Amino acid sequence: MPEADPPAPDRRATEAPAPWRQLERREVYRNPWLRLEEHVVALPNGHETLYGVVRCRECVGMLPFVDAHDVLLVSQWRYVIGRATWEIPTGALHPGEAPEAGAQRELAEEVGRRAGRLLRLTGFDSSKSILEEHAHLYCCFDLEPAEATPDATELLVVRQVPFDEALALVLSGEIVDAMSVIAILWSDRLRRTGPWPPEPMSSSG
To answer: What is the pTM of this model?
Structure first.
């Protein structure tokens, strides 16, 4: 009988990869929202290479629940992809600003609401490679009116939709913004696995 093929090697790492070393760094460009840097780095195998890094401020995204079933979404023209998109309200934190405070500020600026209660969903890094940007995501409950003061570049349309419709827009690929996709999917998981709205876990202070 022919010999059986040897088992495939287990390529799962048994220990953490060795870090890369920064040899040089220079700032190529800066504006109020981001910095672009060019690095020279040394890999553990001795190879040296250029590496571009984009650094952005931390940001927040909020999924505002008007009631147990309806949410607020915003639409605006997104210049880079060349079309309007439906999203949750999002924005960059100010220097030294706590995520919860930034969430309340952006919620007021974009949709004219303040949350009586914030529920933290998760935090994530927008890119694993060239972009340094950490996002904080929240559900917002017990909404109250607040003065909407969007930035001059934020020409927003605000729409109240059933949560199930927002979820369908994610699943169909109509909603493409990462913060919106993650926040809506996290919220759907919570709705399916526990009481809804959930019990208070984190307050806005």
So the answer is: 0.86
